Amino acid sequence: MTPAEILGRVLHKDQDVIVLDKPAGLAVHAGPNSPDHLELYLDALRYGWAEPPRLAHRLDRDTSGCLVLGRHDKALKRLGRMFAAHRIEKRYWSVCLGRPPRDSGTVDAPILKVSARGEGWRIRIDPAGQQAVTDWKVLGRLDDLTWIEWRPSTGRTHQIRVHAKHLGCPLLGDAYYGADPNTMEKLHLLSRSVGIPPLAPSKQHIHVKAPPPSHMVAALTACGWSAV
User: Which GO terms describe its molecular function (predicted)?
Assistant: First the structure.
């Protein structure tokens, strides 16, 4: 990613917060399988400040869309408290294979991270896991494709993907939790919007939307979405 490319993905910027449209396929930080990651490119977002912004939360590597960055320590602490208290509103869009049993509802199902020798780790529904709650609503559909908006009130790893599978409609392109581990489709999951309360009495509420990535446009359009 070049400096121009990351600057072109800025959705919002003020003195405290930057909201970035993270591309699908890019991990947010370093890991054993992530030599290329977003933190390598954040220096381009200093805008003349001494330090680059830092991550206020995380998105999965294959999820695109709204990612919140804090521009200084005080902002990061306030954002951290808001995320911990579930005061930041997060909405996700997905295209799923199959149909949920209703047009809206809530999945309240704890999830647990498990590992298997030679297979890495996965997340599964398990009463021994952490609380995970996701509200959802169908926005459109065509045949076996369903466009769903998800509103997680907790922020567990792979929460939406596992809850979608639990509903019987795994995400299109999900090689971990879908029906086809050899799928060539990219994951159809977008962090569509974030709503951030004022970080101080003099500040304004922040509400930002991210556009669907190119690989989701065809399926979303088939389900009734329009860019107009």
Answer: catalytic activity, acting on RNA; pseudouridine synthase activity; RNA binding
pTM of the model: 0.94
Domain boundaries, the chain: 3-222
Q: What are phi and psi of 162, to 5 degrees?
A: -75, -40
Active site residue 60: yes
Residues 208, 1: Cα–Cα separation, whole Å: 22
Please give the CATH architecture assigned to the domain spanning 3-222: 2-Layer Sandwich (3.30)
State the distance between the two ends of the chain, measured CA to CA, in whole angstroms.
Answer: 29
* Nearest-angstrom CA–CA distance, 227 and 137: 20
Residue among 181, 182, 191 nearest 213 (CA)? 191
Percentage of the chain with pLDDT > 70?
98
User: CB atoms < 10 A from the CB of 194, how many?
Assistant: 24
d(CA 154, CA 131): 8
> Rounded CA gap, 66 and 142, in Å?
26
Q: Is 86 helix (H, G, I), strand (E, B) or coil?
A: coil
Query: Tens digit of pLDDT for each residue in 176-210?
Result: 999 898 999 999 999 999 999 999 999 999 999 99
Residue 114, number of CB atoms within 10 A of its CB: 12
